[in-house]
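Last lecture ended with a question: if I hand you only a sequence, what can you say about the shape of the protein? Today we answer it with a concrete record. The protein is C-factor. Below, first the input exactly as provided, then the predicted structure, then a couple of comments.
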Amino acid sequence: MAAKACSVLNPGATRGLGLEMVKQMVESPWPVRQLLACCRDLDGLRAEVRGLRDLAKKHPNVITVVRLGEYSLCSILLQMGSLVGKAGLNVLVNNTWVLTHGTMQTTSTQEIQAAFNTNILGPMDITKRTFKMYLFFLMSSAATASGKPGMFCSKPAVVSISSMVASMATVKEMCSFFPMASAGLNMLTLCATEEFRKDEILFAVLHPGAIDAPESVEGLLSVMDSLTEKQTGVFLDYEGKVMPW
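The predicted structure:
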């Protein structure tokens, strides 16, 4: 990220955009200071897991990998606190989601529940529980450490990766339960924006585009660097264009 060196918590770092985001955050000319990358099976043989493992070995002083499920959320946050210190945690990236392509008639109740659990309840849970416990302290520390007013990603920020299909304007183009779950994530972001505005914590929803991961992440990080209090609560694409709700 081109902004002031910061610390990042990435709950979905083993594949796709999440893995590419880890790569670009640590290998750019302006790398992050600390990155806590979460995964479920670091010992797995999938190419994505090997990619994260290799990055962690290459950047041991920056990347810390934590297995989700092996540690409680409180333990993960305590570990994050020991890494970032008084500088605090700057950015939480909510980038874990699942796709469901079925219609109301073809999608099972279990598939719908899985989509809502991952796309809405997952981000809500990690944002809510971490704010209640330790993350709020870490992010508040980042706000204090920055020494400047306003909202930026070099101060506390929560960025959620959503999709263009979450827009109500696209419902006729893609009528399935993935847009419903993603729209819920967008609404969650709007609610959190107002709740934490007084604490100067920036919230944003970003659409990664239907393009290759490296190009998408490069754009997403550029947009994240440009965010200020004027954009908190916005829905933007990877080029910074405003998306319709």
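Comments.
1. The longest strand covers residues 34-39.
2. The radius of gyration is 17 Å.
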